[in-house]
């Protein structure tokens, strides 16, 4: 291999490490500080759980997040070599496949990840030999934003493989590959906050109830065998795997919030 290719790989490795750490600091550490330290004391009426996370749980989430990021980093470098040697569908000229495809590309990736996450997550619960690996993630109760990447290394590989699915199955602009990681982390962080902020009538609104809520994923951490999806309440609906208590618990949390709300603006907005 030529020296220039190796130095490009080195530059990429440093850039990827910085990118992964910046995302972790912003979404996981930032999300934890914002929800549990800054806002938390003033919003008990938004709490999904009655208990608080222990510091042992949070340190375990941080440790596992770092091993996940190390695995993502190594898998990312592997993917970079495959991309540079022309083995993937990742492209870099934004108009290479047309403007419409460029814009749709992000949503195609999102739907693909919703599908990948739902099924791999469900198999990790249903297949006995995979289950012990996934139980590392379920140690988080109530979850915190640090739980977003708190996986056993085997599960980290399963989740990291999605970026190979993009590379080999979905022609994707390189910018979306980066942007999608941050978007995934952002939504993941929301799912792991133990506070509910969505609209009080969300479940009665035909278009909006397709979105998942923090309550949805929090109930998954509590009851395990239901609520497997991430962005959309699509596969859980199609496969009838929404938890029977989801509606009831969401409405109970929102009723508690409405009863204790002091802000007129938030009242009017229904948030
Ligand atoms: Zn989770
Ligand atoms: Zn699970």
Concise summary:
The protein contains 11 helices and 2 strands, in the order ααβααααβααααα. The chain is mainly alpha-helical and 271 residues long. The longest helix has 37 residues.
Question: What is the topology?
Answer:
Elements: H1 3-39, H2 55-84, E1 90-91, H3 99-126, H4 131-134, H5 153-160, H6 162-169, E2 172-173, H7 174-191, H8 214-223, H9 235-238, H10 246-260, H11 264-269
Helix pairs in contact: 1-2, 1-7, 2-5
The structure holds zinc ion (2 copies).
One zinc ion binds at residues 121, 125, 134, 138, 220.
Task: Write out key terms for the chains shown.
single chain, 271 residues, mainly alpha, two-stranded parallel ribbon, 11 helices, 62% helix, binds zinc ion
What do these coordinates show?
With 271 residues, the chain is mainly alpha-helical. The protein has one domain. 62% of the residues lie in helices and 1% in strands. It has 11 helices and 2 strands. It has helices at residues 3-39, 55-84, 99-126, 131-134, 153-160, 162-169, 174-191, 214-223, 235-238, 246-260, 264-269; strands spanning 90-91, 172-173. It has a two-stranded parallel sheet. The radius of gyration is 20 Å and the shape is globular. The protein starts with a helix and ends with a helix. The structure holds zinc ion (2 copies).
């Amino acid at each position: 291999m030529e020296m220039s290719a190796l130095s490009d790989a080195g530059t990429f490795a440093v850039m990827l490490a910085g990118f992964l750490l910046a995302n972790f600091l912003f979404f996981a550490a930032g999300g934890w500080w914002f929800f549990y330290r800054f806002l938390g004391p003033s919003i008990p009426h938004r709490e999904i759980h009655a208990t608080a996370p222990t510091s042992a749980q949070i340190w375990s989430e941080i440790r596992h997040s770092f091993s996940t990021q190390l695995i993502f980093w190594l898998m990312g470098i592997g993917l970079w070599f495959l991309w540079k040697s022309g083995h993937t569908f990742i492209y870099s000229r934004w108009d290479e496949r047309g403007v419409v495809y460029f814009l749709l590309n992000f949503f195609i990736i999102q739907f693909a990840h919703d599908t990948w996450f739902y099924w791999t997550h469900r198999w990790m619960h249903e297949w006995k030999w995979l289950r012990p690996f996934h139980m590392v993630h379920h140690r988080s109760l109530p979850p915190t934003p640090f739980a977003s990447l708190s996986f056993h290394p085997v599960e980290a590989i399963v989740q990291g493989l999605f970026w190979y699915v993009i590379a080999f199955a979905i022609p994707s602009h390189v910018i979306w590959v980066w942007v999608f990681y941050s978007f995934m982390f952002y939504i993941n962080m929301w799912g792991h906050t133990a506070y509910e902020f969505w609209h009080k009538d969300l479940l009665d609104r035909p278009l909006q109830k397709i979105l998942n809520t923090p309550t949805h994923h929090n109930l998954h951490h509590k009851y395990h065998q239901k609520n497997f999806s991430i962005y959309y309440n699509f596969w859980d609906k199609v496969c009838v795997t929404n938890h029977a208590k989801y509606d009831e618990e969401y409405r109970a949390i929102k009723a508690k919030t409405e009863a204790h709300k002091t802000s007129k603006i938030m009242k009017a907005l229904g948030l």
